[in-house]
Amino acid sequence: QVQLVESGGGSVQPGGSLSLSCKASGSISVLNAMGWYRQAPGKERELVASETSGGVKNYAESVKGRFTISKDNGDNTVILQMNNLRPEDTAVYYCYYRYAYSSAPDNWGQGTQVIVSS
Predict the structure, then answer these.
(1) Are the C-beta atoms of 76 and 24 separated by less than 8 Å?
(2) Considering only CA atoms, which of 38, 56, 51 is closest in space to residue 97?
(3) How far apart are the first and last CA of the chain?
(4) pLDDT digits (tens, 9 = 90+) for 84-113
């Protein structure tokens, strides 16, 4: 089992920036992936960004060029830097951890709210 503790989030005006951080602890594997999903009210949870322990990054089309994910394998931490935020980025953001052999996230963080509004 992997425990995930998130920090960051909050409220910001359109065009602003926020940073989310997530630290993993517990049964960490050398081969893994970490990243972020988000869920807006009335919508399904969607993948925002991910990075594998080998450094392969993946972004949703809607955030490319605005969000940057960075993963520290030594510290088991992943950070999502969100720039030029839009109202449609408003959602609860969930950190996840996935073992390399898994096809879906194995563990989830508690979620952190991001609100983009003027």
Answers:
(1) yes
(2) 51
(3) 40
(4) 999 999 999 999 999 989 999 999 999 999
